[in-house]
Structures are given as structure tokens and as C-alpha cells.
């Protein structure tokens, strides 16, 4: 595949005031206002300081907007990128033109390129005029409001002064605003009959704090062309020198300064006012702060480091691949208009509404969609909270109560959980207490870990080989490291069980639990992150080991009941929990992060309680759901109010979150169904390329990251201790010369620094890969809409960074 | 004040399919489509089953839409409510008409009334045609999209087939959608040149799953009126019987059935799939579930109980005053378009973006606005989390660490907190551990309360008198109950201190703490809800007592350092904490819930750490901020990463929440500044009516609920044990015949049931007051935009309910 163009850096320079002119409708006078603004700007600027760009123009040459500008504002540089002669919408004109239809990227790159040229030769103003109304389609068919969004140019909106124009102007404004455009000025013709100017001035002042400027209408068309030109010329002279147009230019000038001043000062102000999460702030200086002007798709637009110099000609923004998926939340891309509109609909229909003993459609439909998507005989009910940590606390309250009642433990007999070493379930005290003592929690004053945490075999690609690595301490019990032909072979738990690989795992787990119980330990739930332990250090666990843990616990109620107690009756419900309630923390691993709706499927088993957040809303707003079986639910059922699950947050099941989640799930499931990730699966992951025994669909694992990239990087054995990729996650374990590992190692910093330094100014401005490390692990996480092109570009950066 | 009309129940009947017709622009053929839809519907309906309503019409009678309907669809009943002859926008026409301009309410009430008449006489269809475009202003000047939103009629959008019409149609759709309208169908003329129909069919199918129907254009205008009429009549006959119009009617018919089927089944489905927060679900039946179709301002639209019968003529929805402010979150009204657009802007500009070591404008501006609003020398930094409970866990981690380091406590020496009995800080385990054992937490498996909780004097209006009530056990130490002339006099803590009222309080607190410390107890923070203990039972605490607690602790570092340790150096920072860090949980009490930006002002003191949520986002999405002093922040500063505050949620400082919060704070502060609550303050609360000594502004307390209502209800001493009102909160403590109090009392259920039963069908449909009780306390909570009229109506219901 040929190297794709680098991502687009939004055009912003200190010296160049670039604005995009949108119209509330067609025929509202966009070109007249463009001409006026160009002339008024030129009058304040020495030399040929003003430029005009028409990216797409339709209609005969003689009526083209660039000609109009040439005629009436001859000192303004002007250019049209794509001109179509037929006076219809660009999407039709382009189709009929018999020329290659420019893609959105092509158009944006050329716009940026023209802006960069303007900046480089010292122009002060650039006006970019769109065609038709805000949602008129561009050549590709995408509407302009969506197409131009990545440029993030601030906007002058030309309002409609005709009958109905109030409505057109407000709706056009809203369509822009909900795509994150900063509409800095509304301009329209003043006219006495409909008085749209009066209404709109008041409306925008009251509701949006946006100034509205009114300008007299141009003269009526004269009988001769010559007269017409003369009248228009006179009109432009008068109006461009008039107060109103001048005020607009002054305002745009001021807003440009303010935007830049704000970007310049944000890092310093942030360090003064913000208390950052998970951050030793004394180690940070303003240059360490990622100043985010906007985001689109997989990319942030951030303040470029060079821009701190006073150079007027450096591009201020650069594209930054969001390599941590914004703390693992992103799936459907930043600023996704579908999710925006879903959020806006729910906000407009409900706001937030009381959920205790109440129901609204978004919550009910989301619950149905989640339960259906999980397709588990053990998950019947949905409890809502706000984030993974609270969702885990809910799961814990559910699981512990169920176990306590089944086994008749007294209140004083505190139950612990069974988990894995290095697990992480959130930052609230209850969630923290589910993890073993570690750097995350040992200094936290009320932390008090309650449970037993197993060590386990992990999966890594090392020097090109896919290996199950057994920790040294466990080799006697579990055997030596073992190599496999592929990741899919490791994940083929059924074949491996047929070969008896699980027998030693199960024996070890059973014996360990027996020993603990003999020591007087009591347990109330199992809680694990299926397959990947995220925050604990991106460990890919041998799925067979987790499956063995679940199976042993379920087969061993004798271990968990009171010593000497008779065996409880076999529950009539075949989906009732046995042994201990099994909680799966799928906050990070579920909902397609690892390529599947539920990460429980990798273990080929079902949880009794399952927690889902992060990707649940596609990466927009906080929401968490804790799913549980009817059997668990019934543990809280009685005639006593105090037996209820006494948990609930104010914004429980807030409609905005539910509607966005519903939209996200639908979109993700549709992508899955439509084969949208076939390009990724064919990057060496397809099961046909793995061993014949692993042909069952449950064993098919794949990643957004190409298999040859993973294997090649793993061969850099002087720097890389191992690597894995699954779904959209890539985790590179770096060798730490000092021998220290875990969260507080600095080993991965070098690679991170290389990626963050990024590419210097290129065709579309500079770009880099923003990423986070977890101690000695550098991970990259794509979204579910990340393109093959982006992955190819980043793969190249990784190869460069590791000289692979 | 004359009794205002009751709130509007959204018009929905089983038998009547009512749709609102909006136009993407003026002159797009709304009336032609109305006529077509009326005729097509009539063709499927026996008798005069179809009605047409034009709420507002402008232009000469001869061109009026109702005439057009009469002419071409003579079997359709039709009506115009307000007709203005001048062909301009209704807001101008109404002004020029020399008649009373109808208010939005008047218009909506009349629309509902007409729909009710249609339902009562068995009509099957009603089409309500708007004027101009979606945002064309109504007579009052409010744009129609905002004005008609409370009706919640589903919509047929007439698209624009002209050049530019694609943009107009999509923008109009978006403006409707973001106000919660269900646009069920888009219709427009088919036309070959611009092919808008083709584009829009595909666009709406792909993006919104909304069908688009195309109909041939009407014949060109003929030279004679007669010919014209004949041609149009023929056109209507052909098109209304054509497949496309028929498909629209079938679709609208189906969607109506689906909406009702969904409302009918939601309660049952909810009880099967949802696990409700804080609810003993076994005590619920479907009729206990509040089925919410939509919400607007202070009112839900809920499924009315009678509608479960199969009667075709009962109105299905009723207006329900959101009397719990949706778990205390609501301030600026449900479905507030300002908040919707703020949310949409942030979603469209950022989505969610990584906040650790990052910054974006909404987060920074919100931080600045909060710190400025708090106006506290002790609050310098903002930490973000998702809800009050997590915000408290953050505060706790901050406070305990600061105390531990200052006093040199070892890790094993667990520190408790100092609080008040009945306090409540959230449902996560760490937050629960800040509260004494109670019905909320004692059955929760990992709950382990850590601290000492003081009992305290409360404030109540009893039998018309404002009284500080001292619990019997404390009378020896604190003295007897005391009556005051007004609530403001009780809140005048400065005057009361001048009189020495605080001396016994301080002595009692100091002695209690001395005793506890002698017993070996160690403390790390004070945590209190200023003035009102919410979830713990709506107790209004004597502010002087809380102030005394803060003052004693700050003066008593000797009590909290290790026994025998030397006094620490006086910190150079005058705003450094002393004694213990003071945490104010303002989640419920702050941000104007009690009438002021911060509830700390009632205590005339400043916290070291302060937690804010609920009203922070005006009632739209979850967000919490924990504010702290620089001095506290510095406790976490070192060269060691593990000393950092290791807390942070995935959606930390999500831009949607921050932007909405910024908009909310601005709006609330503006209302405060503009005197928007003067009507409430003048309901007997103004300080001039209280004692002269309490004239200082800090003592001015007031409520949305009239003082005479509070005092009158308090005189129902056979049922009411006391009552208080402050800000938007009213709390009625009901006498429990069984003697039990607290969360699990059922005493307030009777009054609640009366309010929820509500009014039967009235002028604008039925309405009720939805409210929650906390044991023996029934509380009502208004929003910050609740009107005097709503309060007057609800006050009447309360008087009826208590026969006061």
C-alpha cells in the first residue's frame, strides 16, 4: 500500500486571520459579504495582505465568485480550487463534470496548503467561502458542515434577510455550533419589511453572545452591465469603509488574538488551577501540557511546541493521534456527529429525569440492547452508574451479598475476593480494595485490600514467537513456557482443553484455594478483567488460566461454605451461580475494544455479574452499567426496604448517556456485522493462517495492528521484552535496564518521547502520536473507526522508533 | 394573585393521531402537503375523522391556509387560532395587529384544547401546521421550535426541493431533533434539476432512519382562478391517492401505534430488565413505575394511570411536577435549549479528550468560573470526577493525606473523620465509611464507618414558630430549645456570636473531642454538609453549631497531633489549614440550591476542600468537582510519582459536562445578579421583616416557598412535627404514629400519595406533583427557573393535602 498523506494539522498562524464564510442559505449574499470583508480588511492592511479562497464553485465562469472578487477587490489574491460549470449543488456538478471527484481529504489538504502559502508570504487575512448553505453537499456528497469541520476555521455566518430568513439563520447557526464551529460573527442585509436583522441581533446577543452586523442591501440590478458594475463598485466603496463592516473586521481581529492568547496561556493557567488525576504535578512544566484546541476522528489538534516561540509563520497547531484513546474511552471518533445528535436529542427531550422507580425510552432500549448483545443466559438485569469504579462497587455489593446469604456468613465475617495479581478496578475505596497492594493504592489512607490474588501465565510475542510465559515461581506447578504458532492457537481454549492443558491450572487453583480456606480465609466473589489486565500494566493473561479459575470456583462450593455446613440444595435455576459469584470487569476489555462485543467470549464462559463502561458511550460521556443474573438480583428481594441494593447516583441512567450509548452500540454492532474490520483481520490474523485445530470461530482473534508489525517489533530483543496486540490494543513491553518493572518504571519513556516528538512540518503540517505509558509498557490504542491508513502511518513511526 | 392555569399535559390519545407539520423553510409547500395528508387520511377514515389546525396564520384571508384546506379537503374540519393579515412573520404581524399578543402558554393551551375536542368527538387524525420555518418566531417572539416543544407532537417535516434545499432540510431537522422532537417523516416535492429528494432520501435513511417521501410538484399557476382550482383539485386527487402519500399515512399510523405500545409496555419491561437504585423492587408493580415520555421545564410528561384502561378517549399523558428535582439535580429546567446546545458544541468540538496532562477550554474556563464564584481564599484548585460520591472520595484522599503528613501518622494508624449524625456523602465504600452506621449502609458488606459523628441542634418551624431544637441528650450541655422571630434571625450567626450563643457549643465540641482523643481515637478530616443534611433526612442544622465545630477544630491542633509531639510550626501560608482539613460536601447544598452560590456562606467561613456536583451541570449530565486549597495540594507534591493523588476516572473533565456546567453557572449567576428571585424573596422572607439586628446580608435567607405557606402548614401540629424552607427546598417532617423516624419510616407516604394522585382531567389535562419521601420527611424541591405560578399551584395542593 502506498504511503498515505499525513494527517491534517488545522490551519492556524499568529499572523494570518483565517475565517470561513458560511451562508444560512443559498443566495443570501455570501459573495457580496466576502467582497466587503476582503475590501475592509485590505483597507487596514499594507500590500497584498488579504486572500480569498473558494474551494468549490459551481456555475458559469462569468458568474464565478473569484471573478467577482477580482473585479471589485482587485488588491485581494484569490483562488478557486474546483470549478464546475453547471449551476447545481457541487455533488451533482462534480458527478456530471467527467473529472475525478476530489475526496474530502484532498479538498481539505488543498485548503490547508493555500492557507499555509498565505501565511508563509505574510498575508494577514484569508476568507474561505463555502458554497450554498451550511449543509449543502460538497463534491464527495458529504455536507460542507461535516466536511470542513477538521479545519476548525472560525466562521462568519451570512444570515438570510428574506421572509423565513430568521429560521434559516438560527438553524444554520445550530448546525455549525453542534459541530464545534466557533461562529464569531453573523452578518446580513438590513431590510425593513421582515426586520430579520433586528430580531437576529437581539436573539444572538441574548442566546449566544455573538454580534450581528447589518449592512445595506446592494443596489438593484441595472439595465446595463456597465452601470451595474459602477453601482456595485460604489456600493462596495461605501459599505466596506462603513462602520458596520469595519466593526466586523475589528471583532474578527480581536477574536483571532484572543484565540491565540488563550492557547498560549492555557498550559500555565492549567498548572495553576487544575489538580490533575494520577499526576505528580511537581514534575510538570507548561510544555508538558497537551493543549487541545479541538479533536476530530482519531486526532487532537494541539498547540505545537515550536509555537511557543514568537515566530509569526509557524503553524500553531498540529495533529496528534490520540494513542491512548483518551484513557481507553474512544471508539467512534472524536466529535462524531451521530453521537452529538444523539446526545442533543436526549438533552432536548428529557434533560436528566429521575430514574428510581421511573423509566424512559433511552434507558430501556439501552438495557435491552446490552442484554441482547451479551447474549448470556446469566445476565438478565441492568443497574446504572457513572463510571467503571462505581460500577465495580455495585458489582461487589451484589456479589458479596449473594454469597453471604447463600452461605449464611455473619455481618462481622468479612469476605474477601478472589482475583489476579496486578488487577485494577477503579479508584474509589471499595474498588481499590479489590486489588492487591501496589503503587496505585498502598499510600492511599483508607485502602485495605481484601482478597487473594493469583499469579498467572501471560501471553507475549517474543522474538517472533507467540508464547505462554509461566512465572518462575509457578513453573513447578504449571510447567514451562510454551510456544504456539499463533495468537489464535493460544486462544483456542477448547482445543487446548481437549489436549488437557487446563489440568495443571485447575489443580493449582484448587489447591491454592484449599490452603487459603484452611488458613481461615473467607471469600465472597471472584472478580477479574477477562484476558487483559489494563491499568495494572497491560498484561495479556493466558485465557485458559482465567477459564480454569472460573471453572474451579464454580465446581467448588465446598470451599466457600462454612466449615462443617451441609451442602446447600442444588438451585432449581440452571443459571444460578455456584461456588462464588463471578464478576467480570469488562470496563476496558468489553464492547469491541478487543474486537468482540464481550471479552467473556475469549474464556468461552459467562459471568454472573458484568461491568461495562468506557466504550459504552463510544467515547463521549460517562456512563456505566452493571449487568447481573436474575439469581443474584433475587438475593436482594424481600419485604424489607433495607434489604434493597442501597446504591444510586443522582444522574443514574441519565438520558444523554443512555441515548449516546444506544447509538454507539448500534453503530459498533453494525460495523461488526458489515465486516468493517475485514481489512484488519486480513493483516495476518485470519484463522486460515493459523493452525488447522484452531479453526473454530471462538478462537479467531485479530487486531487492528498488523501481525507482521507485532512480530517484527518483537524481534528487537535488545529493547523489547515482548509485545502483544488484540483488537485495537497494542502493548509493547520495554526492557528496563534498571530491572524495575510495573507502573513506576521509566523504561518506556524513550519510545514515548520519540513518538510524541513526531514529524516536523510536512505536507499537511506537523503531526505526532500522543501516547501514554504504564511503567515499562508503551501501549497504543486505536478507535473502532481508525483507518488502515492511520495504522500504516503509525506503524511506520513505531518501526522508526524501535529501528525495526 | 389569581389562580394560574394548571400546567399543560402533552396531547396524546390512543384514538387520535396528531402530527405537527414543520417546514424546512417558508414556501416549501407546507399547505400543499397538509392538504395531501388530510385528504389521504380522510380517505382511510370514516366520517369527518380528520382535522386540521393552524395555530397562527399570517397574510390576507384569501390566501389563508384554512381556506385552502376548506376548498380542497372539504371533509376535513379545520380551524385557525390566530390570524394576522399582514404577510410577515407572526412576531411582527402580532405587534402590528393592535390585538393582545397571545402568550406561548395561551397558544399551547388552545392547541391542546382543540386536540382534546378532536379526541373527544372521535376524530382519528389531526395535523397542526406551523408557520414559516422551524425557527420562525411565533407571536410572542419565541421561535416555534422552542415554543411548541412542550406539546411533544411528533413531526412531519416538509423539506425544501429548491436550490439550497438540502441544507435547509438537514438544518431544520437538526434544530427539531435537538429539541427532542421525533421527526417521523420527511416529505418534499420531487424535482429533477437539484435532485434534493434523491440526496435526502439516502441521507435520512443512512443517518437518521427516517423515511423521505417525494411527491410530484403541483401544477404551475394557471391564468384563471377557476382553471387553477381545477388543476389543483385534480392534483390533490391524484397525489393523495398515490402510493407515496399513502405510505406516509401508513407510516404515521404505525408510528403512533408504536409510541403508545411502547408507553404501555415500558413499566412491565422495566421491572423485568432494570435493577433500580435504592429500591426494594419486590414491593413494586408496574403501576408504581413513572413512565416518562418527555420532560420540559419543571414538568415530566408521564403515562397517566387511567390510560392503562383501554378507553380510547382518555388523555394518555399528564404533567408531573418534578418535585424531587430528579434527585436534586435540576436547576435550569428539563430540556433547556441553552444546555443542549452547550453539550452539543462540546461534543462537536472535542468529544471526550484525555485530561491527564492535557487541557481544553471548557475545563479551564469552568475551573476559573468555579474558583471565582466560590470567592474563597482557601480554594485554589479544581479536581474533576463524575459524581458526588467519587468527589467525596477524592476530598477524603486529599484531607487524610494532608493530616497524616502534617502530624506524621504511620500507615497503620488509621485516621477517622469528624462529622455529624445522619450525614450522607455517597454510595461508594469510601464515601459510605464517612457516615455513621445507619439503614443506608449497615447491611453493606464492606461498610466500615470510620469517625465520630456529633449530634446537633436542628432548625424547624413548629406551630408557626422558628425554633432551634436541641436533642434531649444534649440539653444539659447546650441548653434548651430557643425560639426566634424568623429564619433569618437564626442564620444571623454574627449577631448570635455577639450574644455568646456559640460558647456552649464550642465548649461541648472541644470537650467531646478531648474525650475521644483520650480514648485513642485519631482524626484526619472534618466532613460536613453545610446547613442541610440531605439524604440523611432533610435536617436543617443550626448553622451556629456547624460554625462552632469548624472553629473549634481549627483552634485545636493540640487535639490532633500525636500525643506528646511538639506543636508544629505556624504555617507561613495564612490560608493553610489548621487543626484538621475541613471538607464541605456542597454536592446538594451548593450552587444556589439553598439560594446562594456556596452554602459555606451560611456558616460565614471557608472550607479547605469543597465538593460540588448535582446542580453543577444545571441538571443535565454527571460531573463533579473537588476544590482544594494550594496548601492541601502541596501535600501531594514531591519528586516521587507515587506521592501523587492516584485517582482519576476515564471521563475526567469530559468537555460536554464542563461546557454545560460553565453555561449553567453563568446562567445561575446572571439570574442572581439580575434579581430573578426577587418575587420569591418578597414572599415574607425579606430581611426588613426580620429583626433589625439581622440586617447584614449574610443573614438574609429566603426560599422559593412562601413564608406563610411554611408557617401555616407548621400549624397542622396533629400531622406535622415541623417544617423548614430554604432556597428551593421545602421539607415537611410528618409525625409518625408508630414513633419510628428516619429513612425507613412510612409516615410521609399518605401526603405523598395525595400529591401523586393529583388533579383529574382539567382545562389542560391532568397534572400531579411527583415527589419522594425520606422516611417521615416529605420534601419538595423546585428548580431555579420555577415560576411563581407553579409554586402557587403546588402550594394549594399542599394546603389541600394537609387541610391547612
TrEMBL record, chains A, B:
CDD domains listed in its UniProt record: DTBS
Principal subcellular localization: mitochondrion
Subcellular localization(s) per the UniProt record: Mitochondrion
Entry's Gene Ontology BP terms: biotin biosynthetic process
InterPro entries (UniProt xref): Aminotrans_3 (IPR005814), Aminotrans_3_PPA_site (IPR049704), DTB_synth_BioD (IPR004472), P-loop_NTPase (IPR027417), PyrdxlP-dep_Trfase (IPR015424), PyrdxlP-dep_Trfase_major (IPR015421), PyrdxlP-dep_Trfase_small (IPR015422)
A Pfam match: AAA_26
Gene Ontology MF: a single term: adenosylmethionine-8-amino-7-oxononanoate transaminase activity
Entry GO CC: mitochondrion
Segments for region (Disordered): 680-699
Keywords assigned: Aminotransferase, Pyridoxal phosphate, Transferase
Superkingdom of origin organism: Eukaryota
PROSITE patterns documented for this protein: AA_TRANSFER_CLASS_3
Stretches with biased composition (Low complexity): 687-698
Protein name: Uncharacterized protein
Species for this entry: Hypocrea atroviridis (strain ATCC 20476 / IMI 206040)
Amino acid at each position: 500500500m502506498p504511503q498515505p498523506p499525513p494527517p491534517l494539522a488545522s490551519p492556524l498562524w499568529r499572523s494570518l486571520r483565517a475565517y470561513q464564510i458560511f451562508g444560512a442559505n443559498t443566495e443570501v449574499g455570501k459573495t457580496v459579504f466576502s467582497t466587503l470583508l476582503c475590501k475592509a480588511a485590505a483597507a487596514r492592511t499594507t500590500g497584498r495582505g488579504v486572500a480569498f479562497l473558494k474551494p468549490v464553485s459551481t456555475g458559469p465562469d462569468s458568474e464565478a465568485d473569484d471573478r467577482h472578487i477580482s473585479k471589485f477587490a482587485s488588491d485581494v489574491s484569490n483562488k478557486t480550487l474546483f470549478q464546475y460549470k453547471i449551476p447545481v449543488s457541487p455533488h451533482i456538478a462534480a458527478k456530471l463534470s467527467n473529472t475525478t471527484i476530489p475526496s474530502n481529504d484532498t479538498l481539505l489538504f488543498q485548503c490547508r496548503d493555500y492557507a499555509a502559502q498565505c501565511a508563509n508570504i505574510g498575508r494577514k487575512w484569508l476568507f474561505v467561502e463555502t458554497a450554498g448553505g451550511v449543509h449543502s453537499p460538497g463534491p464527495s456528497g458529504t455536507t460542507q458542515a461535516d466536511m470542513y469541520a477538521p479545519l476548525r476555521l472560525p466562521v462568519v455566518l451570512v444570515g438570510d434577510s428574506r421572509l423565513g430568513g430568521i429560521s434559516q439563520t438560527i438553524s444554520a447557526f445550530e448546525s455549525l455550533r453542534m459541530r464545534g464551529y466557533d461562529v464569531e460573527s453573523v452578518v446580513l442585509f438590513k431590510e425593513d419589511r421582515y426586520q430579520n436583522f433586528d430580531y437576529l441581533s437581539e436573539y444572538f446577543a441574548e442566546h449566544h453572545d455573538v454580534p450581528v452586523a447589518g449592512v445595506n442591501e446592494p443596489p438593484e440590478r441595472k439595465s446595463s452591465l456597465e452601470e451595474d458594475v459602477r453601482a456595485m463598485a460604489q456600493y462596495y466603496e461605501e459599505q466596506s469603509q462603513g462602520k458596520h463592516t469595519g466593526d466586523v473586521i475589528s471583532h474578527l481581529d480581536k477574536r483571532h488574538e484572543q484565540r491565540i492568547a488563550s492557547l498560549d496561556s492555557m498550559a500555565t493557567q492549567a498548572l495553576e488551577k487544575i489538580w490533575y488525576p494520577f499526576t505528580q504535578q511537581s514534575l510538570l512544566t507548561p510544555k508538558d501540557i497537551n493543549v487541545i484546541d479541538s479533536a476530530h476522528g482519531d486526532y487532537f489538534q494541539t498547540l505545537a511546541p515550536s509555537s511557543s516561540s514568537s515566530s509569526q509563520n509557524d503553524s500553531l497547531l498540529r495533529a496528534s493521534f490520540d494513542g491512548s484513546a483518551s484513557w481507553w474511552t474512544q471508539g467512534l471518533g472524536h466529535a462524531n456527529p451521530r453521537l452529538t445528535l444523539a446526545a442533543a436529542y436526549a438533552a432536548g427531550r428529557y434533560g436528566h429525569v429521575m430514574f428510581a422507580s421511573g423509566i424512559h425510552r433511552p434507558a430501556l432500549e439501552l438495557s435491552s440492547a446490552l442484554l441482547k448483545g451479551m447474549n448470556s443466559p446469566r445476565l438478565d438485569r441492568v443497574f446504572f452508574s457513572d463510571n467503571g469504579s462505581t460500577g465495580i462497587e455495585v458489582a461487589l455489593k451484589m456479589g458479596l451479598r449473594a454469597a453471604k446469604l447463600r452461605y449464611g456468613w455473619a455481618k462481622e465475617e468479612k469476605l474477601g475476593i478472589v482475583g489476579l495479581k496486578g488487577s485494577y478496578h477503579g479508584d474509589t475505596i471499595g474498588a481499590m480494595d479489590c486489588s492487591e497492594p501496589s503503587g496505585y493504592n498502598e499510600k492511599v489512607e483508607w485502602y485495605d485490600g481484601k482478597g487473594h490474588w493469583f499469579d498467572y501465565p501471560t501471553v507475549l510475542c517474543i522474538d517472533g514467537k507467540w508464547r505462554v510465559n509461566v512465572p518462575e515461581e509457578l513453573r513447578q506447578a504449571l510447567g514451562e513456557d510454551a510456544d504456539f504458532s499463533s495468537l489464535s492457537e493460544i486462544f483456542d481454549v477448547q482445543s487446548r482443553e481437549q489436549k488437557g492443558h487446563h489440568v495443571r491450572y485447575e489443580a493449582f487453583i484448587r489447591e491454592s484455594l484449599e490452603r487459603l480456606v484452611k488458613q481461615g480465609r473467607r471469600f465472597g466473589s471472584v472478580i477479574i478483567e477477562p484476558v487483559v489486565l489494563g491499568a495494572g500494566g497491560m498484561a495479556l493473561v493466558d485465557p485458559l488460566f482465567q477459564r480454569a479459575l472460573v471453572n474451579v470456583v464454580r465446581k467448588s462450593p465446598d470451599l466457600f461454605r462454612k466449615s462443617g455446613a451441609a451442602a446447600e440444595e442444588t438451585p432449581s435455576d440452571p443459571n444460578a451461580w455456584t461456588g462464588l459469584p463471578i464478576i467480570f470487569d469488562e470496563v476496558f476489555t468489553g464492547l469491541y475494544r478487543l474486537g468482540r462485543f464481550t471479552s467473556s467470549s475469549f474464556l468461552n464462559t459467562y459471568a454472573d455479574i458484568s461491568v461495562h463502561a468506557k466504550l459504552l458511550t463510544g467515547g463521549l460521556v460517562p456512563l456505566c452499567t452493571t449487568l447481573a443474573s436474575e439469581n443474584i438480583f433475587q438475593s436482594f428481594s424481600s419485604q424489607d426496604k433495607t434489604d434493597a441494593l442501597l446504591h444510586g447516583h443522582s444522574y443514574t441512567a441519565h438520558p444523554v448517556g443512555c441515548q449516546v450509548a444506544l447509538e454507539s452500540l448500534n453503530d459498533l454492532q453494525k460495523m461488526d456485522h458489515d465486516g468493517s474490520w475485514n481489512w484488519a483481520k486480513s493483516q495476518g490474523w485470519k484463522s486460515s493462517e493459523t493452525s488447522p485445530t484452531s479453526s473454530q470461530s471462538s478462537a479467531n482473534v485479530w487486531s487492528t495492528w498488523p501481525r507482521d508489525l507485532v512480530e517484527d517489533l518483537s524481534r528487537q530483543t535488545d529493547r523489547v521484552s515482548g509485545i502483544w496486540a488484540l483488537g485495537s490494543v497494542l502493548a509493547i513491553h520495554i526492557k528496563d535496564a534498571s530491572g524495575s518493572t510495573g507502573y513506576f518504571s521509566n523504561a518506556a519513556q524513550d519510545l514515548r518521547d520519540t513518538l510524541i516528538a513526531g514529524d516536523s512540518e510536512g505536507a499537511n503540517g506537523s503531526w505526532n502520536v500522543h501516547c501514554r505509558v504504564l511503567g515499562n509498557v508503551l501501549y497504543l490504542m486505536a478507535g473502532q473507526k481508525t483507518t488502515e491508513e492511520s495504522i500504516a502511518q503509525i506503524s511506520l513511526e513505531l518501526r522508526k522508533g524501535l529501528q525495526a
